[in-house]
Amino acid sequence: MTTWMRKVFVSEGATEYPPGPHLDRLRQKFQRGAAVVLCLDVSASMSADLPQAVRGSEKFLHEAVAGGYSVGLILWHSRVGASTELSRNPEAALNTLRRARVKGGTDLLPALREAARRLEGSEAEDRVIAVFGDGDLGVHAVMTERFAAHLRTQGIRIITMGLGHASATALSRIASETVNDEVMVASRETLVENISSMSRGLRRRKQG
């Protein structure tokens, strides 16, 4: 069930055959779609938790595609380890996930910049960055917060989840929204379900 997705119903006015005055606007709107980039922490401290994190990320990507989103993936540590283009076909992201290996330290800024680059080139109506990590923002925390604030002014939404309350609180400093006014906390015992549940921050658009 995907009842966690918020539904947005918007009317652009009726058209008819032959095409009426609203047809071009409808085409543009429905072609714009929605896009989400999932940023998964693969730093060395994730070693024991990576298999579960990968499984949860796979479920997240499938849920996002089912909800009408193009998906992209970034594996991050102190740098961007790997990334994929936005696509309605999740296979490239899923294949990259399955090859994920832990490495390096923690610095979210390069991953956030890469996610922004992909989304800023998208015409998507709803643009989202979903971040999962087991630590904080990393060595450029202040710059990361400033850059996230800039992205929010551009209409890019940021949702975050951390492994444990300390991480969740640290990452939430860049979030544009929370769930029920609470930071999103994951635990090792329920990590697959926790990461998958980040998709509740997505909005499904009903067409027709």
UniProtKB/TrEMBL annotation:
PROSITE patterns reported for this sequence: VWFA
InterPro entries: VWF_A, vWFA_dom_sf
Residue ranges occupied by any VWFA domain in the UniProt entry: 35-206
Listed SMART domains: VWA (SM00327)
Pfam family, one: VWA_2
Listed CDD domains: vWFA
Name used for this protein in its record: VWA domain-containing protein
Source species: Kocuria tytonis
